[in-house]
Amino acid sequence: MCCKVYRIDDLAKPAGKWCPHCAIGSGCKIYDSRPEQCRAFDCVWVQSEELPASWKPELSKIVFSVWPSTGFIYGQVDLKSPFAWQKEPYLTGMRKWSEQLLEQRRHLLVFVGSDATLIMPSGPVPIGPMSPADGFVVRETFNACGKHYVAERVGR
Questions:
Q1: Are 21 and 95 part of one and the same domain?
Q2: By CB neighbour count within 10 A (0-12 exposed, 13-18 middle, 19+ buried), where does 75 fall?
Q3: Are residues 48 and 24 in the same domain?
Q4: pLDDT tens digits for 81-129?
Q5: Enclosing domain of residue 16
Q6: Which of the four, 17, 46, 92, 116, has the lowest number of CB atoms within 10 Å?
Q7: Is 109 helix (H, G, I), strand (E, B) or coil?
Q8: What does the chain look like in DSSP terms, one character per residue?
Q9: Partners of residue 110 on adjacent β-strands
Q10: pLDDT tens, 58-68?
């Protein structure tokens, strides 16, 4: 899935299209000479011993990675399955995951193309169009149901 969902500038590969060097189901045909972006990529599913098999990107249609400068978890959703992140067990799992991350002052965001949604323990908080490098602010408020969050992108 990482060979599909991400844009790879060194290969002129757009986001949402399979890399021409990907042998689907087998791996990278240019693994030894792959671009730095591919070398530096760390898939959370591959590294985590806690995520169940159902979260494998090929099944979930979501590729999770760690944004290096913040430690935030970013999930990139396959554009052919834009609502995959809203299905179970993923949404409930991400809400629980976000609660653990908040204790570390980290966040979990899901991207469908450039449309970002912050996942909070109380549920999804739409941010709208942004790049992973953009910043955002989160405000905690209260309503009749308890804690409520609002998030917005901030300029660089």
A1: no
A2: buried
A3: no
A4: 999 999 999 999 999 999 999 999 999 999 999 999 999 998 999 999 9
A5: 1-40
A6: 92
A7: strand
A8: -HHHHS-BGGGTBPTTS--TTEETTTEETTGGG--HHHHH--BHHHH-SSS-GGGSHHHHSEEEEE-TTT--EEEEEPTTSTTGGGSTTHHHHHHHHHHHHHTTT--EEEEETTEEEEEETTEEEEEEE--TTSEEEEEEEEETTEEEEEEEEE--
A9: 75, 117
A10: 999 999 999 98
- Number of structural domains the chain divides into: 2
The pair of structure tokens assigned to 104 is 């570390």
156 pLDDT higher than 70: no
**What is the reported pTM?**
0.90
Rounded Cα distance between 10 and 57, Å, is 23
Amino acid identity of residue 21, one-letter, is H
Query: Which of the two residues, 144 and 52, has the higher pLDDT score?
Result: 52
Same structural domain for residues 27 and 73? no
72 DSSP assignment: -
C-beta of residue 154 within 8 angstroms of C-beta of residue 137: yes
13 and 78 together in one domain: no
Is residue 120 domain-shared with residue 141, that is, in the same domain? yes
62 lies in the same domain as 21: no
Q: Are residues 73 and 135 in the same domain?
A: yes
Residues making up the chain, counted from first to last: 156
